[in-house]
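Morning!

This is the sequence you dropped in the shared folder:
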Amino acid sequence: MYDVIIVGRSFAGILTALTLKKHLPQLNICMIDQAAANTVICDQRATALSPSSIILLNELNIWQDLAPLSAPIYEIHIGMTPIKLAPLVFKQDHQILGYNILNHHLRSLLNQNLNHINIDAHTGSAIKDIQLHTSFATVTLDNNTQIQARLVIGADGRTSGVRRLLSTTRTIDHHQTAFTGTIHHTTPHNNRAFEFFIPQGPLAFIPLEDLNTSTFVWSLKNQLLPITSLEDTLSKLMHPHLGNIQCTQPVQQYPLKTFTASPRAGHRWVLVGDAANAIHPVAGQGLNLAIRDIQNLAHHLSQQHLLGLDIGSLTHLSQYGRARQIDRYSLLSITHIAAQWLPAPHKTLSLFLEKGMKYLNRSTIFSDFLVNTAQFGVPTLSK
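The structure's back. Tokens below.
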């Protein structure tokens, strides 16, 4: 009998295991993943990390190894068209707003740290069934192995089997396809990130450690597919800021859909990360939201364990779910509005939005609020 079963060796799953072992080293943890242990994942994407996420990585003694591989972001430029200066610029007196790191660096270091903690693992088998009992849960794998624990944590991403078996899913199809990859550009980025809400769909560029290298995400409307001459198109759009652009890796693409689970916690089970809510990449906040989930869940589980109470009880897991609602729904709403409504096809609306950005850019109170919200999430009563 385990204390905790974590389903999914995702970023969220690994960070959940590391965080729980940091706060509660006596927990007996098992991790289940449907991929084989030696599976090589080809992922050319990057992840933006906020200061609140850096706090957790520091606590886990991981950040000192990640920092040299990450690019600091000092400015974020937001506008309606790349051909003009962005009307809205976020910066805070040379303070770092966040970091950008390639996923294969992040995955490699997280796996190294996972291998150094004492947990059991079942790989190469997917979950087939979950039975919830009064004092424990039983997870059955597709090879008919049965594993029992007091708590099941679903961290198995957008296609979560835990969510499918224990919760309901609300799906929003954005009718967009994300094109993402690493690019080389002739003009240095100077640690600036760009986000432009052009009619074709939101287009973002985030700096990497080399001044002439960035990652990009273009959430392109499906009716405009297929796209040809991607490098030429990006160069024309971003020439005032980044010069000529060349893709240094094969460009990846995937359909954009938002998922949210309801409920996200119940008796003997809880969801974290993309298993609980998968948001649009327009703000680059997916993993940061997951890390705030993990920090809050670790706090709740630690309190329960220190008091000698049941870590799988419905009462305290429901409290965790309610504590995360404001942050979760606020970010889901903001990203949905930004992805669907800001890329305005009409010139009049585009000009109106641009003037609004210029007005907001003059308000330090508004700027500081948005920056702090992106860095640390929406404030809640329960931490």
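Headline: The mean pLDDT is 88.

More detail when I'm at my desk.
O.
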